Amino acid sequence: MVSWSVLMRIQATLQKEMVREFLAEFMSTYVMMVFGLGSIAHMVLGGKKFGSYLSVNLAFGFGVTIGMHVAGNISGAHMNAAVTFTTCALGRMPWRKFPVYVLGQFLGSFMAAVTIYSLFYTAIIHFSGNLLTVTGPTATAGIFATYLPEHMILWRGFLDEMFITGMLQLCLFAITDKDNNPALRGTEALVVGLLIVIIGASLGMNSGYAMNPSRDLPPRFFTFIAGWGKQVFSAGDNWWWVPVVAPLLGAYLGGIIYVIFIGSSIPRKPQSLENSMVCEDHRITELPKNPACPTLSGSMPLEQF
């Protein structure tokens, strides 16, 4: 029987900021990936009867929406290592949180792959004839990770992933920019989900629009250890590293473009004389929270993306 003191210590640990953010990223990424990978399993294993490319876009898009509801007010629900990287690189979050977020995302994505494999195991075996392959008419590795199609070559795939992730990050900054024209309060998760659907429906066919190292690498590693073998890394001229590196570069460039060409050009409201006097008077010890004076209201809240 677990003692009361042990339960109290567990509860105290779970209440720590870093632990809560790790668990938030884990759960939100898990939710997104279960819905997304499950939709691909339906499309691959069930043919047109159970799934389509549109259903995959919808599942990933609204999977992101639900993931944001799961963790948006705790960690911001990044669910994407490229978004976390850009958030840190642009000074919107301290770098010490980067490994915490990414570890949560990777573990959540890996466990989602384990879940989908367990749920669809018999369908996978039946469809593939008990032979787990990466390429060919009965390939099933594509349920879990992206692979370069025959009409693409590696460097074009790299540019494609970089571009669409840049578009993702630029639009995320626009959606959440309180000084511009952000999504209405309470609708951010829905708008971001629609953004994922739009990107997939318009730009997804060339590279599978991973846009996210946390979405692609952990499930790929799972397929490696689950029986698909080393070809999950060697297929497509060693394509595996592109969904890891290209999204990081693309998201950073997209964020920089928004900050320079849009964010910096938005007129800022001048600080009122009253607020300026309050911020300068360090003798005042208790005042209402004032968004114009971050030193009085604690650290300014991080934007979701």
UniProtKB/TrEMBL annotation:
GO terms for molecular function: glycerol channel activity; urea transmembrane transporter activity; water channel activity. InterPro entries: Aquaporin-like (IPR023271), MIP (IPR000425), MIP/Aquaporin (IPR050363). Its main location: membrane. One of its GO terms (biological process) is renal water absorption. Keywords: Membrane, Transmembrane, Transmembrane helix, Transport. It is a multi-pass membrane protein. The chain crosses the membrane at residues 21-44, 50-71, 100-124, 153-175, 187-209, 239-261. It is found in: Membrane. GO terms for cellular component: basolateral plasma membrane; lipid droplet. PANTHER family: AQUAPORIN OR AQUAGLYCEROPORIN RELATED, AQUAPORIN-7. This is Aquaporin-7.
